[in-house]
Amino acid sequence: MVDRYDVAIAGAGPAGAQCARDLATRDYDVVVLETESEDEFPRQSNKSTAGTFPSMMSSFGIPDDVVMSYTDDVVLESPNEYYESYQPGAVPEFAELQRFPLARGRANGP
Description:
about 110 residues; alpha+beta
């Protein structure tokens, strides 16, 4: 284990994990601090993260096996508004979305 790091990231959620992955690919020594143990992570995360677009998935290099399901249209609904757009969407599985960038970052790290 390294004694010093260039960057410390608090939290291994999707944002922290993606940040760690990106920094590791740029040759920074990164440590991710997470309250859950590695054996438990991600605990109780078998849920949807809402949706995104396939173009966003490809821009972050997220593989198809992270996707829970695909949709042909996007619907946003609130008590006062309704919006529907007929375009492809993707719903990532939250636990896999958290694991993927951490594994990639670890592969690029020390």
